[in-house]
Amino acid sequence: MADPDEDADVRGDDLKGHRGRLRKRLFEGGSDALLDHELIEYLLAIAIPRGDTKALAKALMREFGGIGGVLTADAEALGRVKGMGEISTAAIKIAHAAAIRLLQSHVSDRPVLANWQALLDYLPADMAHHAIERFRVLHLNTKNMLIRDEVMSKGSIDQAAVYVREVIRRAIDLGSASIILVHNHPSGDPSPSRADIDITRTIAEAGKRLGITVHDHIVMGTGGHVSLRAQGLI
Questions:
Q1: Sign of CA dihedral 183, 189, 192, 196
Q2: 43 in Cβ contact with 25 (< 8 Å)
Q3: N or C, where is the chain less crowded by C-beta within 10 Å?
Q4: Which of 48, 61, 126 is nearest to 93 (CA)?
Q5: What's the rounded Cα separation, in Å, for the pair 60 and 49?
């Protein structure tokens, strides 16, 4: 890891030499050799080759609470930070998209229930840091392979009747044998609410009548995740 003394802003230091040192550490030590803000700094340097991106990287980290928040922030929010333009915003979003695609490939390659850890690696990267609540459904076939991963809504999930109809109708359309429900808590606390439990049980009961199994409902937060199945709540 870097020496904390190297955390000072690059001022009179040769910018090219500074980036060369970051690059060398990255090549020799991998991602663990750089601090979180240094990863963002170097990423921004690709988009802003002639500017000192250390201060901008730190500003983004402060604004969004860490590297996870930076990568998952939407383009509009990133663009409001002074110094961020369209190209630098695109650099952040393409890095996040690539990371999600990599994690998603690990989920898609094997039966989900036999590869549960890969799912738990993928979901937080895509959901835990969002500032608004998202409700999504993972659709599985009879071999428990992922056939579709869809965000069904954004916002509150307390309108149970609407979501039951939408979730079950979509599962029927896709020929899903089973589903996994997922949503995030922007507060960071993944503890399920009464509404979370109630809607899960309602969807599970509706699915059961049609031969569609609800394997789990996972609540994501920056503080971790909670499985309603593991908690005995469904």
A1: negative
A2: no
A3: N
A4: 126
A5: 18
Q: In this structure, what token pair is assigned to residue 39?
A: 């990863």
CB 181, CB 214: distance < 8 Å: yes
Looking up tokens 């959901």, which residue turns up?
A: 127
Query: What torsion do the CA atoms of 68, 72, 77, 82 make, to the nearest 10 degrees?
Result: 50
Is-above-0.70 flag for pTM? no
- Give the pair of three-digit tokens for residue 127: 């959901």
